[in-house]
Amino acid sequence: MPRIPGVPTRRAGWLAKLLYRVARRRFGAVPEPATVYAHHNGVLLTWALFENTLQRAVRRLPEGLRELVTYRVATQVGCSWCVDFGTMLQRMQGLDIERLKEIDSYADSPRYTGIDKQAIAYADAMTAQPPTVTDEMVAALDAELGHDGLVELTFIVAVENMRARCFHALGITDQGFTSGEACRVPVPSDKAITMRRG
C-alpha cells in the first residue's frame, strides 16, 4: 500500500471518477498513482493532461527505444510500479519484453542494438546522482538521432525520473499489471482505508 491511501471511487470527486473510468477502459484497472493524486485535483488534472499530451507529442524515436529507456530509468531509481506498468505497456505494444531480463548486462547483450546501448548508457548517466552525461555521449546520440531525437530522448528520460522518484517517495509499488492481477484491486476500498487509519 502507498504511504498515502488512494481515494476510493465512492469518495472521489467527479474529475477522479471520470479519470478512473477512462483508465479502467484503457488499462483494465485504475493506476494507483491516479488514486493517490486524487487527493489533489490540481495535481491529478495536471498529471492526466501531461501524460496524455506527452503520449501524443513523442513520435520521433521508435516506440521500442522510448519504452526501453523509460524501463531502464525505472529500474535504476527502483520504482517497482513503473517497472510493472512499463512492462505491461511494452507487452501491449508487441515489443520484446524478454530482452528486459538482460537490461543489467545490456552492454554485452546481443539483444540490444548499438543505439539501444547508447540510449541506455545516456539514461543511466542522466539518472546518476550527480548526472554523468558527457559531451561525447550527446554528440554520438545527436549524430544517430538528430537534434529532435536527442531532445525527445532527453525529455523522456527526465520525465521518467520525475515519475519514478515521485511514485517511489509516495510508496506506490507494483500493482500487478505485468501479471494481469491489477484488475483485481483497481481502486482502494473504503474498508482498506479505514483499516489503515485505524
Name the descriptors.
198 residues, 8 helices, AhpD-like, disordered C terminus
In whole angstroms, the N-to-C terminal distance is 15 Å
- Enumerate how many helices there are, as a single number: 8
Mean pLDDT: 90
Number of domains: 1
| Strand residue percentage | under 5%
Shape: globular
The count of DSSP E runs of length 2 or more, i.e. the number of strands, is: 0
- Our Rg estimate from Cα atoms comes to 18 Å
CATH class: Mainly Alpha
User: In this structure, how is the largest beta sheet organized?
Assistant: none
What topology emerges from the helices and strands here?
Elements: H1 14-27, H2 32-37, H3 41-57, H4 63-77, H5 80-92, H6 114-127, H7 135-169, H8 190-197
Helix pairs in contact: 4-5, 4-6, 4-7, 6-7
What features would you describe in this structure?
- Helix content is 62%, strand content 0%.
- With 198 residues, the protein is mainly alpha-helical.
- It has a single domain (9-190), classed as Up-down Bundle (AhpD-like).
- Helix 4 runs antiparallel to helix 5 and helix 4 packs parallel to helix 6 (114-127).
- The longest helix is centred in the C-terminal third of the chain and has 35 residues, at 135-169.
- The chain is globular and about 50 Å long.
- It starts with 13 loop residues before the first helix and ends with a helix.
